[in-house]
Amino acid sequence: MPTIKRVLLISFISILLLLFGIAITFIMLGRSFLVIEEKINPSEAIIVLSGDDGRLEYGADLYEPGQRVILTNATEPNTTRSLAIELGIQADDIVEENEATSTYTNATLSRDIMNEQQLSSAIVVTSNYHTRRTRMTFNKIYESTDIDLSYAVAPSSFSTTGSMTRYEHRIAFSEYAKLTGYWLRLFLF
């Protein structure tokens, strides 16, 4: 029977190996790996993820009257109903989701709304550094549906070229760590 010291040592070594793996992946793939830009398809809905400035503004730029605009975690200051209306989105087209606390719950709760409203396609709006994790998560959560998703990259201060700022180092390392955690959760557990 393993001793507590042995279990703690194995746990500590495992965590160190995981962090080392994330660091090596970041060094090898760089920050551009995090960004996925693709063609935006016409859709019945726009799902705006909370969490960063510029996402709602970009969603409003893509918006056409009659499209549903799902505001995930609409309690955050940068994804409120009032701001959406200020940006030109019609009040009747706004659907607020107020419970999401992560990209994973953004995906599950928006999927439920899409199903309830019988919508068959959506554009998911997020920041450039967040697109790989968003796409992986939403594609996995939506895989059992017939809902077509495309992904729009909102303007962000995160750059994939030139020397990295302290902000970009922090964001990139954080995204690689989260990407690893999400991959483990979505595909292994």
From TrEMBL:
GO terms for cellular component: plasma membrane. The chain crosses the membrane at residues 7-29. Residues 44-177 form the DUF218 domain. It comes from the Bacteria. Keywords: Membrane, Transmembrane, Transmembrane helix. Coiled coil: none annotated. Pfam families: DUF218 (PF02698). This is YdcF family protein.
